């Protein structure tokens, strides 16, 4: 065979050999997307449209409905999860979508609401108590249909639409859906409810504030217990059982009137300054009237007082307390007291009196309630600007009958405390009052028992207008007669026209003698009082008696 004829035969034989090696197979169509008119389909290998399934094109997923065409602008359920495809049919991911009746024509998802679809396209929805979901660093609440919630929400994820929704709600979300987190909420809708913690009606609040913590939960106390306190932005706040920020007094204490002049609370109350954002007043002064439960009359009359709180915000009460370099008095509920104040020790307030409630005679006679069993102090009557203890000095006090001098030890206690006459620095004091001579006579007489109650012994001292004891041997003119002083003690009184004279060698021995300048014998009338003369209270003219010992 020629060369060309051989090549042709080999080609035929080779073709025959290949045909013997390849078996008979069925031909298949190409799987993929196919457009029919304006609609896309996805054909499987049998050249049939795929239905009720997701198929991917490049980076996007598309859903083919039961007719095999793209589902568009709809929310639907697939494999137990919710999805949404946009108007082009793309599955939406990491996006919010407002689902209304057009996107949910069957009404399967309830009322119109915002829904969120995650990275995998699945819609977020509540599952049991797991209704809170974090999205881009913020927390949202969803119902069982996947609808975003707003407004007041309870512990189980239910929106509360009662008249007073805040009372039982635990969360709050604005219209944007984000739960309040580490954030204040101002609420001014008003309420007729009453706080169990404070005993105060919310109608009295000008506004109500709530705070939601890092876990989105409303701060609140347990009903009937102490306020729930937390530090927020450097200040301390208190919240009641409904979560309302306390803007006034906290849990109202029980008041005891066992001591009529000192109603006492059974616990130390706290004050949250509604005028300063509601922060708890810690280690501060504040000017406020008491809660009606603490003092109904002063609350009704808006009688304000100064109060002082400790480092925990509790009102100082029932004690004398140092603030800086000064000391102040606080009664049984915590009001600062000024004027004359009675304490047992420094930890039991007994009574308070305005300085002009009493006369000098009331202090001399011990007429103030409680003065026989408690220590008397004076706190500056200038309540607005001072109010501190007046101690270690004499001070002029304007009593009901005019100015008189009082004196107090460095401890603040009055000299002559508890109705016990006290001699100090050559002066006498009783219940703090300095015993001064009557102004019109210039001198007066103080009797002192230097014995005991069972066996009294009396001494009589002469004092001047400044309360100083007149010492030495003196004849003192009162304008109405003469007081005779020997060794600093009262020896007698005479109404002689001429001043008596002391004679060491008188006819009746040493003593004070009558003196009559008109007579040749000036001392003819004899002895008035000698060194050994015994004096009794009856010898003291009533008008000259400054203090008479029992």
Number of strands: 42
Please give the count of helices: 3
Uncertain residue segments? 1-26
Strand order of the largest sheet: 23-24-25
Global mean pLDDT: 87
- Structural category: mainly beta
Radius of gyration: 50 Å
Largest sheet, strands/sense/barrel: 3 strands, antiparallel
* Share of residues in strands: 25-35%
- The percent range for helix content is under 10%
Q: Please tell me what the overall shape is.
A: rod-shaped
Summarize the structure.
The chain is mainly β and 550 residues long.
Please explain how this structure is put together.
It is built from 3 helices and 42 strands. Helices cover 5% and strands 33% of the residues. The protein has a 3-stranded antiparallel β-sheet with strand order 23-24-25, with no helix packed on it. A 3-stranded antiparallel β-sheet has the order 27-26-28, with no helix packed on it. The protein is rod-shaped and about 165 Å long. The protein has 550 residues and is mainly β.
Task: Offer a few descriptive terms.
mainly beta; three-stranded antiparallel β-sheet; 42 strands; rod-shaped
Reconstruct the topology from this structure.
Elements: H1 3-21, E1 32-36, E2 39-43, E3 53-57, E4 60-64, E5 74-78, E6 81-85, E7 95-99, E8 113-117, E9 132-135, E10 138-141, E11 151-153, E12 171-173, E13 183-187, E14 208-212, E15 228-232, E16 235-239, E17 255-256, E18 264-265, E19 272-273, E20 279-280, E21 285-288, H2 296-300, E22 305-308, E23 319-323, E24 326-330, E25 336-337, E26 339-344, E27 348-353, H3 360-365, E28 375-379, E29 393-399, E30 402-408, E31 422-424, E32 427-430, E33 433-434, E34 443-449, E35 458-464, E36 474-477, E37 482-486, E38 489-494, E39 501-503, E40 511-513, E41 527-530, E42 545-547
Parallel strand pairs: 34-42
Antiparallel strand pairs: 1-2, 3-4, 5-6, 7-8, 9-10, 11-12, 13-14, 15-16, 17-18, 19-20, 21-22, 23-24, 24-25, 26-27, 26-28, 29-30, 31-32, 32-33, 34-35, 36-37, 37-38, 39-40, 40-41
């Amino acid at each position: 065979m020629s060369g060309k004829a051989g090549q042709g035969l080999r080609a035929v034989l080779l073709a025959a050999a290949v045909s013997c090696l390849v078996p008979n197979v069925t031909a298949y169509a190409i799987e993929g997307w196919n457009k029919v008119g304006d609609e896309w389909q996805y054909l499987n290998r049998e050249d049939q449209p795929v239905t009720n399934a997701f198929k991917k094109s490049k980076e996007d997923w598309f859903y083919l409905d039961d007719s095999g065409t793209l589902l568009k602008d709809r929310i639907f359920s697939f494999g137990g999860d919710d999805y949404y495809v946009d108007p082009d049919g793309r599955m939406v991911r990491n996006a919010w979508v407002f689902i209304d009746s057009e996107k949910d024509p069957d009404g399967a998802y309830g009322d119109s609401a915002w829904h969120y679809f995650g990275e995998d396209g699945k819609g977020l929805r509540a599952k049991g108590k797991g209704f809170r979901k974090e999205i881009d660093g913020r927390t949202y609440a969803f119902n069982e249909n996947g609808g975003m919630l707003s407004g007041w929400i309870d512990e189980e994820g239910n929106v509360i639409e009662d008249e007073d929704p805040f009372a039982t709600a635990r969360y709050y979300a604005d219209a944007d859906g984000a739960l309040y987190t580490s954030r204040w909420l101002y609420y001014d809708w008003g309420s007729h409810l009453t706080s169990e913690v404070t005993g105060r009606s919310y109608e009295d609040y000008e506004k109500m504030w709530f705070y939601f913590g890092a876990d989105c939960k409303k701060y609140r106390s347990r009903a009937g217990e102490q306020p729930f306190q937390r530090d927020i932005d450097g200040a301390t706040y208190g919240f009641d059982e409904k979560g309302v920020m306390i803007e006034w007094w906290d849990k109202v204490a029980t008041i005891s009137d066992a001591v009529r002049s000192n109603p006492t609370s059974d616990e130390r109350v706290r004050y949250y300054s509604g005028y300063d954002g509601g922060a708890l007043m810690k280690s501060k002064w504040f000017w406020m009237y008491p809660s009606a439960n603490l003092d109904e009359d002063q609350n009704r009359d808006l009688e304000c007082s100064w109060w002082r709180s400790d480092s925990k915000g509790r009102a100082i009460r029932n004690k004398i307390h140092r603030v800086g370099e000064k000391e102040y008095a606080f009664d049984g509920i915590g009001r600062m007291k000024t004027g004359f104040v009675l304490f047992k020790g420094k930890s039991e307030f007994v009574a308070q009196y305005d300085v002009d409630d009493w006369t000098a005679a009331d202090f001399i006679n011990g007429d103030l309630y409680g003065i026989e069993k408690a220590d008397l102090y004076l706190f500056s009557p200038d309540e607005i600007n001072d109010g501190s203890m007046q101690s270690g000095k004499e001070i002029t006090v304007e009593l009901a009958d005019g100015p008189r001098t009082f004196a107090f030890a460095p401890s603040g206690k009055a000299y002559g405390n508890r109705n016990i006459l006290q001699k100090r620095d050559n002066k006498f004091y009783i219940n703090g009052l300095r015993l001064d001579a009557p102004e019109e006579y210039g001198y007066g007489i103080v009797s002192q028992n230097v014995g005991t109650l069972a066996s009294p012994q009396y001494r009589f001292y002469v004092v001047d207008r400044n309360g100083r004891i007149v010492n030495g041997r003196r004849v003192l003119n009162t304008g109405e007669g003469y007081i005779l002083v020997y060794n600093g003690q009262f020896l007698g009184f005479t109404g002689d026209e001429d001043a008596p004279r002391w004679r060491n060698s008188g006819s009746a021995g040493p003593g004070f003698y009558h003196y009559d300048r008109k007579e040749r014998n000036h001392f003819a009338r004899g002895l008035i009082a000698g060194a050994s003369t015994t004096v009794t209270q009856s010898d003291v003219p009533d008008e000259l008696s400054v203090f008479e010992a029992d």
